[in-house]
Design a protein that fits this description.
The chain has helices spanning 2-5, 14-21, 41-53, 106-115, 132-137, 145-148, 183-187, 221-235, 247-257, 282-288, 292-295, 303-314, 316-321, 338-352, 380-393, 412-415, 418-431; strands at 10-11, 34-36, 58-61, 78-81, 97-101, 119-120, 155-161, 167-170, 196-205, 210-218, 239-246, 269-277, 297-300, 327-332, 357-363, 368-374. It has 17 helices and 16 strands. Helix 8 (221-235) packs across helix 10 (282-288). It is of the alpha+beta class and 451 residues long. Strand 15 and strand 16 (368-374) form a beta hairpin. The chain has a seven-stranded antiparallel β-sheet with strand order 13-10-12-11-15-16-14, with helices on both faces. Strands 5, 6, 7, 8 and 9 form a five-stranded antiparallel β-sheet that branches. Strands 1-2-4-3 form a four-stranded mixed β-sheet. The structure holds (2R)-2-hydroxypentanedioic acid (2HG) and zinc ion.
């Protein structure tokens, strides 16, 4: 490996490898053989060929912000750290695009885009560590997805390396290009199991100059869903984000941030919304929220107060993780089923364990719910099965934005049919026949897929 990437970029020392051994929640771990830090697609290709020859598996590793163990090695795997794939090209103002290395953090990409008066359309709380490559590989969603789509909508092309060392380059950024199969589209969301994404052609957006943020307390999930429908009707494209969290979420956030509840009374559910427009949108907010909702509302007009309101929502992942082992589910269900689904999850979890603490938060605008279970000693398999069945019964998906990784592969069924999983296996066999990349991730073990 040293002959490919240089001595300094091969990590073999156990102490230095420790950073790769655990995911940040410390739920997933494994002892890698070594870690390598290539700086180009060509170096990645040579690393892949060496690993393939030695029959050693490879796991891709970006900012280590994933939540399904997808970037955490199994014992004996080689970690491919994308940190040196850090190139960042000039913003092309005419196409509103730029090319960025897989290892560039979202925050750095945002700064670069903003210097040109544009922005990355996807935003998420882990922006300082999450990498563009990892975000494309997992088709990250985040808070703005209801307005601008998930990462997929921002990708105009990729450069990627197959496990046999062939490099696929589609970085021209053409918006219309229907020449054959759309290989970049296939790699988006493939979680490092089909190829290594090394560079990305990103489409940027011009976000409106002014925004207002509001936090609204409501007494039921049904009310929250109705509010979203009203807001959509009244605000159209000026509605950039609608997030939510429950009462326990508010308590955890206040404790973690050492801040007071921004609303004077307690509520069952909190909706955080952001409106953006070319002119000050405070008037739009006043016209969009009326009735009881407008009486339990905190409004932030300046940047600092807006960040403060967002912090209640954005701290929740860390706040629940700080409480110990958490069972995490990242699901999406149709808007019309959200309230019923939340009630059904509550009943199901109480039936398993009366003392369980259920914390639900997420991205209400696109039906993405993060279901977190604390203080439980539950049989994870049992909860997995029950929740995936509830998700399917409500017409939802078992992974909205975090991916499948190691954590959810056994429950890809019933969100995906046998025919779909079989097609996925065929693609995997075709692109990575030696199963060098992301072994035992995403695709279910043969017995769990029912074949
Ligand atoms: C978020 O929306 C992240 O905060 C993390 O996707 C979700 O903690 C989680 O389960
Ligand atoms: Zn999320």
């Amino acid at each position: 490996m040293a002959s490919i990437v240089g001595d300094a970029n091969v990590v073999a020392n156990r102490d230095q490898l420790a950073v790769y051994e655990y995911d940040w929640t410390r739920r997933w771990h494994g002892r890698p053989l070594l870690a390598v830090r290539p700086s180009s697609a060509e170096e990645v290709a040579r690393v892949f060929c060496a690993c393939r020859e030695a029959s050693v598996g490879i796991v891709m590793h970006g900012g280590n912000t994933g939540l399904v163990g997808g970037a955490t090695p199994f014992d004996g795997e080689v970690v491919l750290d994308t940190v040196r794939l850090a190139g960042i090209g000039d913003v092309d103002r005419s196409s509103r695009q730029f090319t960025v290395g897989a290892g560039v953090t979202l925050e750095r990409a945002q700064e670069h885009a903003r210097a040109a008066g544009l922005d990355v359309a996807v935003d998420l709380a882990a922006r300082s560590r999450a990498t563009i490559g990892g975000m494309v590989a997992t088709d990250a969603g985040g808070a703005l997805a209801m307005r601008y789509g998930t990462m997929r909508s921002s990708v105009a092309g990729v450069e990627a390396v197959l496990s046999d060392g062939r490099v696929l380059t589609r970085l021209s950024g053409l918006l219309k290009d229907n020449a054959g199969y759309d290989l970049p589209a296939l790699l988006i969301g493939s979680e490092g199991t089909l190829a290594a994404i090394t560079r990305v052609r990103l489409m940027l957006v011009k976000r409106p100059a002014h925004r207002v943020v509001a936090l609204i307390g409501l007494e039921s999930f049904a009310d929250a869903v109705d509010l979203v429908a009203d807001l959509r009707d009244r605000l159209g494209v000026t509605l950039e984000a609608v997030e939510f969290f429950d009462r326990i979420g508010m308590e955890l956030a206040c404790a973690r941030l050492r801040k007071r509840d921004p609303l004077p009374a307690q509520h069952v559910v909190y909706v955080l919304l952001q409106i953006a427009d070319e002119e000050d949108p405070v008037g739009l907010l006043a016209g969009a929220v009326d009735g009881p909702a407008s009486e339990a509302m905190a409004v932030a007009e300046d940047r600092e107060r807006q960040r403060a309101l967002w912090s209640y929502r954005e701290t929740l992942n860390e706040a629940v993780t700080a409480r110990g082992v958490v069972l995490k589910y990242d699901v999406s269900v149709p808007q019309a089923s959200i309230a019923q689904f939340v009630a059904a999850v509550d009943v199901q979890i109480r039936a398993f364990d009366e003392r369980a603490t259920l914390v639900i938060y997420g991205h209400l605008g696109d039906g993405n719910l993060h279901v977190n279970l604390l203080d439980v000693e539950l049989d994870e398999r049992q909860v997995d099965d029950a929740l995936s069945k509830l998700v399917a019964d409500h017409g939802g998906s078992i992974s909205a934005e975090h991916g499948i990784g190691r954590a959810k592969r056994a429950i890809l069924h019933p969100t995906r049919s046998s025919a779909e999983i079989e097609a996925m296996r065929a693609i995997k066999r075709a692109l990575d026949p030696s199963e060098t990349l992301g072994r035992e991730r995403v695709l279910p073990p043969i017995e769990a897929s029912g074949r």
